[in-house]
Every structure is written in structure tokens, then in C-alpha cells.
Design brief:
Largest sheet: 5 strands, antiparallel
Order of helices and strands: HHEHEEEE
Mean pLDDT: 74
Radius of gyration: 18 Å
Structural class: alpha+beta
Helix content: 25-40%
Shape: elongated
Strand content: 25-35%
Number of helices: 3
Distance between the termini: 46 Å
Number of strands: 5
Low-confidence stretches: 84-88
Length: about 90
Amino acid sequence: MGDMMGLISRVMALLRPLDARDEGLAAGTGLLTGRVAEQVVTEVAECPQCRKPAVVDVLDLVDKQARYVCTACAHRWTVRDLSTHGDR
């Protein structure tokens, strides 16, 4: 029985997504958050309200949009076309 469990564990490890992007797509959401989203969209955005720096809060890989949050005033907004906003 122990050998069978070891085999199952190895097979499951091979089927596991390689990175967070694949994991998000595999989960069916296509959403990345936090530091993972910041690594995908590396452009520094400017807050439309206070003109201070903003970072990506949520990245939607399915709809190709990103939600930014201002580091100064906490204003949030969505950029809908990532092809012109720094995605890799």
C-alpha cells in the first residue's frame, strides 16, 4: 500500500502547475494577486487621483485586465487592455 501511495504522490507532483500563472489558469479563475501579479506587470503606474505610484493589486489573465491600487491614497482602478499596459 505504501508503494502505491508513493507512486500516486509522484504522479500528482508531475501534474502540479509549474508557476502561479499556470496555477491560476488551472484553478479556472485566471486571477493573480499580490507579489505574483506585480512580477507579471512590472510597469509603475501613476494614480489618476493623486499622481503617486501605484501597484497591481489583481491581474485577470482571462479578461486581460489589471486592477491597480495607489500606494498613497489607496484609490483603485482597472486597466482593461493589458497589451498596452506593460504585460509580458
